[in-house]
Amino acid sequence: MSDKKVISETVLTTDEINMLADINTHISQEPFYILIVDDNQRMRESLSELLAIYGMNSTLSESGSQALDLLESEHFDLVLLDLEMPRIDGFQVMSKIHEHYPDTDIIILSGKTSFENALKAWRMGAQDFLKKPYVPSELIELIKKIREKRRLNTEKMDKRSSNSSLSNVDKTLMELEDIIHNEDLTLAHEIINSSPAVALLWKNISPWQVHFVSENVVNLLGYTAKELLTGKVIYKDIIHPDDEAQFMEEVKKESKTTKFKHKPYRIITKCGVVKWVDDSTSLVRDKQGNITYYQEIIIDVTERELSRQKMLQKQISLEHIAHHDVLTGLPNRLLLLDRMQQSIKKAQRTKKHLAVLYIDLDKFKSINDSLGHAAGDEVLMAVAKRLRENVRTVDTIARIGGDEFIVLMESVTNVQDVKTMAEKLNHSLNQPIYWDMRELFITCSIGISLAPDDGDTPKELLKKADVAMYQSKEEGRNTFQFYYA
After folding, report:
1. Helical H runs in 354-393?
2. What is the mean pLDDT of each run of 10 residues along the chain (485 residues)?
3. Are both 245 and 367 inside the same structural domain?
4. Is residue 62 a part of any domain in this protein?
């Protein structure tokens, strides 16, 4: 029985892979978007698996033209690029990246190792050039250096931008506070109108009428100062309905302080446009300490907030991709390891068993070889669907390899329940799968390990379930076996 897998043409044992996964599963990092471009499917997938071990998600491209389409529609921080590809080669892809996406870094992974090619790649902006087969740890170190360099550059830019914006606001606010306390609103008017910030002073009495507002409010809200001062428009009514409760709650919560910042919130302009604003508020009190006025400095941060939300949505999407199999939508190895850790702790707490069912499709390679990957993908999606239909909602299903699936059965009190589940899954997967007017038949071999009997770590349980799965194959396939030493 083989206990090894090939990653990027470098052989790692299953123990080594699991050890790396254990180390990297809980590493928290900023989003980092990697595009793998290689016309060799095996190289693409093995490289993606290597990156996943280190907690890095990646997008795969099988050709230069597909890579250019992806670059046009999505943002990537790093491209891992093969040079030898049909039609559009790596150099042509590099040329487009250099022209249109200068902030994207490139590492060349190629079998073309002539000095001329390396020199040309460096001149076109490649960060480094690795010869296939490369040492995985060397590639990972290169990626980490690029990632750290980008992080430091981003921090510098953010700090520069933040300092510039906040310093203007804080300076304006301090000047305004001094002026308001001296009741020199005319001077405040002149100071604020020369800045990007809008100043307001509103009474602490319903309906919260504006007592003072700078003339430049029209640039932000579309309303004139006169419309606000005469009470024709109440500032509270300009706040987006979905954010009003948050705004007023913050005012109420911070009433014991003298100065606070609201979370960014939305306002609606006179013409109906929604804008995001940052709001720094100070409280003006009388001699008895009662709040008489709220004074605010407001700045338009719509572009920043929309950009942040777009990145957040992309992060959520990529976070899902990083922890789920793209083809079947099932959890991948990274998410499985995390859930296994939680399930083991639950089993220890409840004194019940956790069953790990390691499912490997029998002779799946013959389908790919005879009918192509489209047929193979159809089979894998059908298998995932049938697994979902047959396991309990509390259980976890994951795809951890090409034709390898895992089912975690929690809160097991009777081994017979595990046998029943294994029989049920075998029977379900035996049913024909229809593809391109053909009937495809598949069987599976299942290996089972139990926690805590067979181990109390994800690595131990997966390894022993893997051993049991091979014992199933030796028994003639299309069956299941529990682990035995």
Report:
1. 364-371, 373-390
2. 40 44 45 90 87 87 92 89 90 88 88 72 80 82 86 65 49 53 48 70 76 84 88 84 85 69 87 89 80 83 85 77 87 92 92 95 90 91 95 93 94 94 95 89 95 93 95 93 87
3. no
4. yes
